[in-house]
Amino acid sequence: MFDFSVIVKNLPYLLSGVKFTIALACLVIAIGTFLGVILGLMKLSKNSLMRYPAGFIVEITRDTPIIMQMFFIFFGLPALGIRLNTFPSAALAMSLFAAGNMAEIVRGAIESLPTGQFEAAKSLGMNYLQMMFYVIIPQALRRMLPPMMGLFTTLIKDTSLAAIIGAFELTRAGQEIIERTFHSLEIYLVVAAFYFLICYPLSYYTRRIEKRRVAGF
Amino acid sequence: MNDVMIEAKEIYKHFGKVKALDGVSQSIRKGEVVVIIGPSGSGKSTFLRCLNRLERIDRGSIIIDNIPLTDSKTNIHKVREEIGMVFQQFNLFPHLTVLRNITLAQIKVRKRSHDEADRMARGLLTKVGIPEKADNYPFQLSGGQQQRVAIARALAMQPKIMLFDEPTSALDPEMIGEVLDVMKNLAREGMTMVVVSHEMGFAREVADRVIFMDEGRIIEEGTPDQLFNNPREERTRTFLSKVLK
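YS: structure for the whole thing
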């Protein structure tokens, strides 16, 4: 019935899948956070030339399924002469999705700060960047951390969608093994366990900092 | 030499349909202490906030120390370095210690060294009477202490003008005195001050001039003695009779 030897035999292959999953997740989190902060700040701008394009990108990426974005980039863009491999396609699509969601987290956290903080910084002669860098973002970061961790957990799990366009990562690795061995039960169980092992520490840490936030200011 | 520090001419400002400032003109000399009083919604805070462009005016002109605020070529950050502001809600930076609250803008905006900024900050904390709180965080301080830190933070920039927007309105009664004392000292040292306040005692004692505003206009102004003892306008009398009980 339950065959442990299949797991043992295929562990190295699954682990190489884990490596790609982690690589994809890190890439998506890094690019998504960077772009998301910029988009979030643009959405807060008084200048409509900044605000509208950012709003457009954020809405598109948040209100369409990631899988559609992946299909669009991997299957759709070649029609325009832009050809990306499976892994870069998945990374790009997920980064945009991450950026759109990150932008809303950044915007929400900054908007939740009292206006007095902005005014105090301005009245001391700080320019926009000084105000953001030394006064606003350090405070917003505390409020951003819990939803950010939530987003990162979602992103890690959703890297599994990359398997659908054939990018190699953990889920794809599992599927390939199952195609060879037909041991769906054992392999999917191990695949799921790996996702759990990656995500659980993040969720746990998020709850910890949420508790600490109640105690702090 | 021109000793006019603040020159506001015919300024208008509205929020939506509400006229906040309806043609306010005022000229304030160097070293003068001006207290603005008036009912809530009279435009006194708005007027104050226009002086460092926290609010942009719709019409009119404001000249601060010979620099026109309304000129698009004016670097507003430079002007604000010279104008300290103290808020009703203190607005200390909660993520920084008291010392860092006072040194931040000195270092980043005035480009002072850390040592220099530290020395200035500790000196000012002594001046406002709480040198021992340097390494505390704002939330560990009482309201009165926080407001004194906020004053020290503004003074650390060595501004030419200090604006006070109802600095004691959010304080418990027993803490109002300690903040007013700091302001009185500052006035004696010759700082140019514009103070929006409900503290009539403070106005009587330190103001060179008291301005009464209502419905976005300056109704009456004069020395504390003139305004409190012999108000010319009916509206001033009505207001004073309410606040002086």
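YS: worth flagging: Chain A has a mean pLDDT of 93.
IM: good catch. Also The radius of gyration of chain A is 21 Å.
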